[in-house]
Amino acid sequence: MEKITRRDFLVMSGTTGVALSALGVNLAPATAYAAGLTKMDRVKSAKQIGSTCCYCSVGCGILGSVDNLTGKIINIEGDPEHPINEGSLCAKGAGLFGLSGANEHRLKKVLYRAPKSDHWEEKDWSWALKRIARLVKDTRDKDFITHNAKNQLVNRVETIGHLGTSNVANEEAWLISIACRAMSLVYIDHQARV
Ligand code: SF4
Description:
It is a single chain. The protein starts with 5 loop residues before the first helix and ends with a strand. By secondary structure, it is of the alpha+beta class. Helix 1 packs across helix 2. The mean pLDDT is 84. Helices cover 35% and strands 24% of the residues. Strand 4 and strand 5 form a beta hairpin. The strands form three sheets. A three-stranded antiparallel beta sheet has the order 1-2-3, with no helix packed on it. A three-stranded mixed beta sheet has the order 6-7-8, with helices on one face. It folds into three domains: 36 residues, no CATH class; 68 residues, Phosphorylase Kinase, domain 1, CATH 3.30.200.210; 84 residues, no CATH class. Iron/sulfur cluster binds next to helix 5.
């Protein structure tokens, strides 16, 4: 097999099929199989349940597939027959399955890497919340600005920013927003604005 550098791999990863072919992986059988599958083939061992994405007022239709044998969710995707989204989902909706408890790759515990450490330590939520609260409070107290360069009253903190996650609903995003403003943060952004 041809030797591939890390840079070669990253360049080729932009076109996954090309990268896999270069690595000697024959995609032809998988591609032919996938192309031949009908919608019924894909769901024959699962029950499909229609629902609505909970993340914004657009109300895109989704289809959840529940395995007939285990009763577990095995997939969530856009509903191609839904009049609003016709099968498409934005990043928030596309991440629905990733957020579900059925996703075995989802991180469900706190991992902490201390400053200058080269490894992660497992911590409990109580420890993590106290540490976050301590750092936020100390930083806010240290960097609170009452007046700007023009001596105008501003009462703000410029050294803490908040970036909202795509995996919260509208109501949670609103709560996060007012919590940040209550702490006088001004650098607040959220994935939902895309
Ligand atoms: S968050 Fe995205 S996928 Fe969900 S309803 Fe809104 S636009 Fe649709």
